[in-house]
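job 3f2a | input accepted
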Amino acid sequence: MSQYLLAALCFVGYLTIYYLVGVAVSKILKLDNNPVRQLLVGMFAYGILFFIYVLPLKFMIVPVNVIGKIWVVILGLLCLFIVVTLRKYMAKGLKKWAAYIKKNKTAAIVVGLFTAFQVTFVEIYCRLVAGYNQVWFVGWVSNGVLHNELMTYDVVTGGPLSVFPNDRYLCTFLDHSAVICRIFHIHPMVEVRTVLTGIFVLVQCLVIWELAKCIGKGRQDRSILAFLLYWGVRNAMVGSQLLPSYYTFFRTYEGKGFVMNVPIPLMMLIMWKMYDKPEKTKYLWESVVIIWGSMTYSLSMMFTYPFVLAAYIPFMLAKKDGRKYMFRNIVVIGLECLVFFGIYYLGRIGILDLTIRR
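job 3f2a | predicted structure (358 res):
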């Protein structure tokens, strides 16, 4: 089958799975029945599910093709169960979303066209042809397909590793790409630099639109202006390697490029919601899902989120009503980051045994 067709099917398949998982999470945690937000939170929840599934199998050196076949069955049954049990809930959310689009046609057209343009432009014209980091993100997937093992071969020398890399083994989105490539015969370059690139740019636009809606406070014109102004400024600063816009265009498929452009602004949106209604636990649990899920893309987020929380502290001190709930939110999110730091540190000092045993 053509790699172009496989890429298109994979792209649509990812979005469908993210949405279905997000529907289940929103129902369980009593989040908003909003298809866009469900797709976003579903992306992180799906990453957590695969993380829980694949991590022990990775340590046991289970072949990638076996991991993939079992996962396809599990995922198929899960999606079928969600559709059967939550079809009415899904229909209600989609109906509400369709009504919103009908009422805000101008916004839907502008945001839709811009998103399509952004995804197409990045896919066709923005390719970093040289760069050491490509070795990591394409190399791990390629090794997984070639050797039928996950993260057991060095991406630079090609030789077998004696231990799992402490700073990489928790980033299971690379393992997922290897599984997909091995099972469905998609080339690693197509999966990483085409499918994931398109997905990452799309969800960036969706997150920023959700933020723009909050800034616009119900006014379509203000929301559109905020959305376009953000992207206008972002895209104008694409030349700096230190800014998120550089990763949007040239290194989109990298874990750190994803986390700086999707979960961080999404967390800012949720913290905005938590400030308005700090007593609502649904926003806290949504944060927990997003933070854990983002760790499966880049472990550096265990250091980044505390800085995001630091910006939350002045607002907590200034708000008299609900201060104890805001403090609770900071503590829970901080502890979650601390858990991942603890795991990382245990591996770094050798207490956590990362030896590869074949």
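job 3f2a | The CA atoms of residues 7 and 13 lie 10 Å apart.
job 3f2a | closed
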